[in-house]
Amino acid sequence: MTRILATFKIALRALRRNKLRTVLTMLGMIIGVGAVIAMVSIGNGAKSQVEAQIASLGQNVIMVFSGSFNRGGARSGWGGAGTLMVDDAEAIQREIPGVTVLSQEVRSRGQVAAGNENWITQIQGESADYFTVRQWPIIQGASFGEQDIRSANKVAVIGKTIVDQLYPGEDPVGQIIRVKKVPFKIIGVLLAKGLTPWGQDQDDVIIVPYTSAMKRLFGVTTLQSVLVQTSSPKLLNSVQQQITDLLRQRHHMGPGRDDDFTVRNQQEIADAATATSKVMTILLAAIASVSLLVGGIGIMNIMLVSVTERTREIGIRMAVGARGTDVLLQFLTEAVTLSLIGGVIGIGLGLGVSKLLSAKMNWPTLTSPSSIVIAFFFSAAVGIFFGFYPARKASQLDPIDALRYE
Hints:
- By secondary structure, the chain is an alpha+beta fold.
- It folds into 2 domains: 2-53 and 274-404, no CATH class; 84-250, no CATH class.
- Helices cover 56% and strands 18% of the residues.
- The protein is built from 13 helices and 12 strands.
- It has helices at 2-17, 19-55, 86-95, 130-133, 146-151, 160-166, 210-218, 236-250, 266-309, 311-319, 324-361, 369-395, 399-404, and strands at residues 61-66, 70-71, 74-75, 99-114, 117-126, 138-141, 155-158, 176-179, 182-190, 205-209, 225-230, 261-265.
- Strands 4-5-10-7-9-8 form a 6-stranded mixed β-barrel.
- Helix 2 runs antiparallel to helix 12 and helix 11 packs antiparallel against helix 12 (369-395).
- The longest helix is centred in the last third of the chain and has 44 residues, at 266-309.
- The chain is elongated.
- The model is unreliable at 69-79 (pLDDT under 50).
């Protein structure tokens, strides 16, 4: 331990002899590590933002869509074919263990109006459990209940965007809103949720009982989708498979026939949504890592120059008893010290740049402790890799030739 400390002190003393050269050499590592930390933080921040938006759709959610099947050479998209029945949703709730609540869904876009104002928005027919599945609190009024579902009552819960557009500065609860010219009573206002990962305004919506939507607004007898919530994330895959098996059985889908429905769980959607962010993070980190490579080459260059300048010093050390391994360790320690100091400063720079981008440009950034640890050890590895050759060259100098060197 004493020997290592002594070697480290000698390395610091050698580096202090040429302060400007040392600082310029470390600059490559500082910029490289700082760029990697900042770029990975930006990528992780974007990924985290998408994951948070996915989570806003609810926890432990499985989505069952009508359609997405081949028949006679034609292919239908999600919700494009009326293959899901209300009885299917009730069977899922009744027969599959692990399902806590679900919501039958029908959707469309249409005009809503209040007074002299009108707005084109998303109209959703849902069950009373929809707000539980989506974990979407109502900040004014209340949601509709099972009695409203059974009676197909003309009641509605609206999003914050509808309030802003049709009822600015007013309390909308208790007022009448015309949905496709059918009067509905507003009984609740939803908490603002913002945009989805694909850029849709979640608050630009009016939600009515699905029975009311089917009978009074859309004139349909089938569902477009069903939101299913499981009691645990561990059950997602098993419940998803059970739903598939149950619907195939109910729809009399024989072996070899394509499903006339689509089942997706929340994790699959999250993976698809974050795939681009992951690729971008890797790409940014790879580009920034080029700076580390340049910094490592700079360290090798300076260490080779240092070996040449200190050839006579190396010869004197060997003449008084220093072994080749001692010289190797000395120059390797200098290279690693350069790299580590530059790495530590670079970590601070990267964290500072991340905070600045977040504060000034409103970019989401997230710096994980693991990225800092990896950056630190990677900078040490760069020092060892690029410092080994100059250190080995110094250790193999002939003492007599070194003493004669001018």
